[in-house]
Amino acid sequence: MTGTAPTLAIESRKVEADLAGRGHAVIRNILDFQTCKSIAASYKDDNTRFRSRIAMARYNFGQGEYQYFDYPLPALVQTLREQFYEALAPIANHWHQQLGIESRWPRSLNDLLQQCHAAGQRRPTPLLLKYQQGDYNCLHQDLYGDIHFPLQVIIQLSAPGPDFQGGELMLVEQRPRMQSRGMVVNWNQGDAVVIPVSERPRRGTRGFHRAKMRHGVSELLSGERYTLGLIFHDAK
Question: How is 161-206 classified by DSSP, letter by letter?
């Protein structure tokens, strides 16, 4: 894997506004073409880069597969994980404030991981996902343990159109006393999308309440699709 992580210039106010209005926030052009291709190509590396490979069909998660990186993470993945966490932690803390939750998330990823490891969550969660024709991912939440940071990031490594058809990233929001709301993310190669891990605050007539959310991937119609997932809490 080659490529240097850029210094991220994330407009936190815009990200939080998009999360409040759309349930997700797209940040354009996080990685360039060559870096995307290099990360995707590392999926086939036969070394100790990954700790496990999951075939989705075996667990009824869908169709396709993904691999979790092992520690130490590749430098590029580590840097992206650290920079995104520092940008998103203030948003996560504002969500806690809106929902009346007293606890606050630490400012640095290292401090969060210390909390995870003390709670027995020691396995790294950043992952590479690979989809081929006919593959899909069922709606789910990436929790992994009692400690789960409320936001995660997915980076598109393949080009919609030239590399694959179909395979849309889908979000479904469960709304109290209303039908669920479905959303499809419009993004390109090198873009990142910030999504809730399991819920987000929504303003109602009596203040903020928790809206449950899940995400998945629709059936890939042709080609190959690779994405990089950045989950900030570790797993049991």
Answer: TTTEEE--EEEEEE-TTS--EEEE----TT-EEEEESSEEEEEETT
pTM: 0.95
Cα–Cα dist 135/62, whole Å? 7
What total of structural domains would you count in the chain?
A: 1
Q: What are the percentages of helix, strand and coil residues in the chain, rounded to 5?
A: 25, 35, 40
> Where residue 29 sits, what CATH number does that domain have?
2.60.120.620
Q: What is the pLDDT of residues 59-92, one digit of tens each?
A: 999 999 999 999 999 999 999 999 999 999 999 9
CB contact set of 7 (below 8 Å; sequence gap of 6+)? 83
Express each pLDDT in 15-32 by its tens digit. 999 999 999 999 999 999
Q: Cis peptide leading into 106, omega within 30 of 0?
A: no
**C-alpha to C-alpha distance for 203 and 180, rounded to whole angstroms:** 16
Query: Does any domain span residue 191?
Result: yes
Length of the chain: 236
CB-CB contact of 143 with 213 (8 Å): no
| 12: its two tokens | 């936190």
* Per-position DSSP letters for 50-92, written without gaps between them: EEEEEEGGGGTSEESEEEEEPSSPPHHHHHHHHHHHHHHHHHH
